[in-house]
Specification:
By secondary structure, the chain is of the alpha/beta class. It is about 25% helix and about 30% strand. The chain has 7 helices and 17 strands. It catalyses: S-sulfanyl-L-cysteinyl-[protein] + uridine(34) in tRNA + AH2 + ATP = 2-thiouridine(34) in tRNA + L-cysteinyl-[protein] + A + AMP + diphosphate + H(+).
């Protein structure tokens, strides 16, 4: 098969590309330029898409003996991921930009361009597995649960899975680094990227404030009492405790958390920890990694990347899914994603639009 190997400049995508060559495919390495003003050097493990990263990817491609190209997708990334991120926070929601990037860039824009150029598939360094099942290719968790990335791939549909390869899913991260060193790759010990790639310093609040400007407002208790002030409700998320700067402590000394963000009034609502527990999740924009489920089904529900999996019952109705958790989850924010599993198989995902409590904490 003719395969485009997405090469970020890191160790994972380097080994993934090499493994595709070893498997006998005709491979071309592609680095996605996603920044309109890429930094020359990486300052830390945060961020990506620097000129240094592109150079690292090119050196690996030369070592493996495959052609290498840089595809400029900065404008598409800005529109589909960065601007979506800002709009979601402005609306009081907490998005996961990695899911949006996978959905709209790596497995939409990249795959579409690859197919248009006559390639058959795309390979990436994600930690996940594709298994041939009775109804076609299935997406499963990786062997290395500490690195499993199936959650952020839950937006892929059956057609995209049919044209995707994840060569690292059966291997642990330490083994990948050992393999990279054995192959003579200079990136064998390169630190992993983490957090939001386009916020290199990790300061999401500061980044949003620079984009949106300060928008002072009140932080109120659940009874409406003003207990503090903020410079922009967009910088807060449900479940947050640090950085609230509350001026009025509770009489009982209990810690308070963000329990609601109300963009219409530019208000942040705080309350006690018990108010964070929810057991009902409603999601929209459902994406199914295969045939859409019919009726009620038992699933495992994961509510954040690398978060725990909750036993649950899901009911799908078109692009809407309702998930009833067996136990309460804490600090779930609208805008995050719920990804549904059947054992290790990814059933699909949806963007959380609402949460609630169906019953008392005691059951």
């Amino acid at each position: 098969m003719r395969v485009v190997a997405a090469m970020s400049g890191g160790v994972d995508s380097a080994v993934a590309a090499a493994r595709m060559v070893d498997a006998g495919h005709e491979v071309v390495g592609v680095h996605l330029a996603l920044s309109q003003s890429a930094a020359t050097l990486r300052e830390s493990a945060r961020g990506c898409c620097t000129i240094e990263d592109a150079g690292d990817a090119r050196r690996v491609a030369d070592k493996v003996g495959i052609p290498f190209y840089v595809w400029d997708m900065a404008q598409r990334f800005k529109e589909d991921v960065v601007e979506d991120f800002v709009a979601e926070y402005t609306a009081g929601r907490t998005p996961n930009p990695c899911l949006r990037c996978n959905e709209r860039i790596k497995f939409a824009a990249l795959l579409d361009k690859a197919l248009a150029l006559g390639f058959d598939a795309v390979a990436t360094g994600h930690y996940a597995q594709i298994v041939d099942g009775r109804q076609g290719r299935e997406l499963h968790r990786a062997v290395d649960m500490a690195k499993d990335q199936s959650y952020v791939l839950g937006v892929l549909d059956a057609d995209q899975l049919a044209r995707s390869f994840f060569p690292l899913g059966d291997t642990t991260k330490p083994q990948i680094r050992e393999e990279a060193a054995a192959r003579g790759f200079s990136v064998a010990k390169k630190p992993d990227s983490h957090d939001i790639c386009f916020i290199a310093d990790g300061d999401t609040k500061g980044w949003l404030t620079r984009r949106l400007g300060e928008q002072p407002g009140d932080i109120v208790d659940t009874d409406g009492t003003v207990v503090g002030h903020h410079e922009g409700a967009f910088a807060y998320t449900v479940g947050q405790r640090r950085g609230l700067g509350l001026k009025v402590p509770r009489e009982d000394g209990a810690k308070r958390y963000v329990v609601d963000v109300q963009p219409s009034s530019n208000t942040v609502v705080v309350g006690t920890e018990d108010l964070l527990g929810i057991d009902l999740v409603v999601g929209e924009h459902a994406r199914w990694c295969g045939e859409a489920p019919v009726g009620e089904l038992r699933v495992g529900a994961q509510l954040r990347a690398h978060g725990e999996e909750f036993a649950a019952t899901a009911v799908a109705e078109g692009e809407r899914v309702t998930v009833r958790l067996d136990a309460r989850a804490r600090g779930v924010a609208p805008g995050q994603s719920v990804v549904l599993y059947d054992g290790t198989r990814v059933v699909g995902s949806a963007t959380i639009t609402a949460t609630d409590r169906r019953r008392s904490a005691s059951g």
